[in-house]
Amino acid sequence: MESKLYTKEEVIDFINAGRIMLLSGSEKALTGLPKGNWIAGTTLYVVDYEGKCEEEKIFVDDFTLIAKNCKVAVYDKNNIKDIAINGFDNGFAVITLPIDSEVYYEFSINALSFDSMFKNPVVGYVAATKFEDYGKKSPKTSSGLDGNLTSDLAVVLYVELPDYLTARAEIENFDTIDENTSEIVFPKDGFTQSECTIDGKPGNIADYFENVVKPKLGGYTQMITSQNGALINRDVKIVDPQKGEVTFFSPTYAGDKYHLVKNGADYLKMFNDKLGSKRSDIATCFSCVSYFFGGNFDGRHVVKNGVYAFGEIAYQLLNKTIVTLEIDRVAM
Q1: Separation between Cα atoms, residue 214 and residue 236, nearest integer Å
Q2: Of 134, 160, 125, whose CA–CA distance to 40 is shortest?
């Protein structure tokens, strides 16, 4: 079944038919769904042949045709560490979790150290609200275990694949490093940073953003680093010059070398060129609202349907990144 928007009535029929699905929509649309083989997260930003902010319909990623088996699980901050060990031998896990919840922070900081984390792909997104409602309304998650919406639990759909199929997680970052900007290194892991080194000299990250970046660019921009050749963004959430702190939407790590993002990317063209050239079967696609707004996707054609939220997950929490779950046939 094609990944796209469906009416709530259609989705209820899919659930009752036993389909295995990730559901994304508004809190109103996700309320009152029957029990079944599904998980759900709130976000209103989707691509359904064109960019949309949708409050009534539900975006469906359906895994039924590739699934040998499935199971649904719910995690809090105390047991999210078990997310990978509870999966199937051959398959993948799809997760959604609410931004700023305790389980969100636990996963974000420690996911890469969880037992067996790289055994199978772990992909998903951070549940969102309408952008202007962030901080006023709580994003929600739900699952077919009970259909209840919650603001503090991670929901996970485990899918087992038949032996002739295998899954892999891929990430794409359409930003590049501006090598003309300073190199920033932090002494500790965390969402909030203060002291750092700037081009090898002691400095303060809030002072750097307020007195160097803002006057030059007229505002703030993302930071970016290379992790084993993969470019990883860190979106700025709050700059507090009085406290001397900057808080990011995903954690920064000690020892990584950060620069500013190079401005001027044509995100819409890059999306269509890159995703349009893929030859493998993309089971699902997640991306960031930063691309949605930065590329002015609303009402414009995008070649791959998918969900846009407050962060993407490919083993760890990412920002301003495309995550695709891709399915390959195993040579027998």
Answers
A1: 12
A2: 125
Q: Give tens-digit pLDDT for 153-194.
A: 999 999 999 999 999 999 988 889 999 999 999 999 999 999
Q: Each residue of 253-312: pLDDT tens digit?
A: 999 999 999 877 789 999 898 888 776 678 899 998 888 988 899 999 988 999 999 999
| Whole-angstrom distance, CA of residue 45 vs CA of residue 24 | 9
Three-class secondary structure of residue 205 per DSSP: helix
Name 169's bridge partners: 325
Whether the CB-CB separation of 96 and 39 falls below 8 Å is answered with: yes
CB atoms within 10 A of CB 211: 12
Give dist(CA 255, CA 276) in Å, integer: 36
**What is d(CA 89, CA 71) in angstroms, rounded to the nearest whole number?**
13
- Those residues with Cβ within 8 angstroms of residue 228's Cβ, 6 or more apart along the chain or in another chain: none
In the sheet that holds 245-252, the strands lie side by side as 190-193, 245-252, 236-240
Q: Can you name the residues that pair with 286 across neighbouring β-strands?
A: 307, 323
Q: Model's pTM, two decimal places?
A: 0.91
pLDDT band of 229, cuts 50, 70, 90: confident
What is the distance between the alpha carbons of residues 259 and 252, in angstroms, rounded to a whole number? 12
Closest CA to 172 of 265, 66, 54: 265
How many angstroms separate the CA atoms of 206 and 283, rounded? 40
Edge-to-edge strand order for the sheet containing 58-62? 4-6, 58-62, 21-25, 38-42, 141-143
What distance in Å separates the CA atoms of residue 112 and residue 58, rounded to the nearest whole number? 31
Residues 6+ apart with CB under 8 A from 242: none
Q: Label residues 77-86 b or e (16+ Cβ within 10 Å = b).
A: beebbebbee
**Helical spans, DSSP H, in the chain:** 8-16, 27-30, 102-110, 205-208, 214-217, 267-276, 289-294
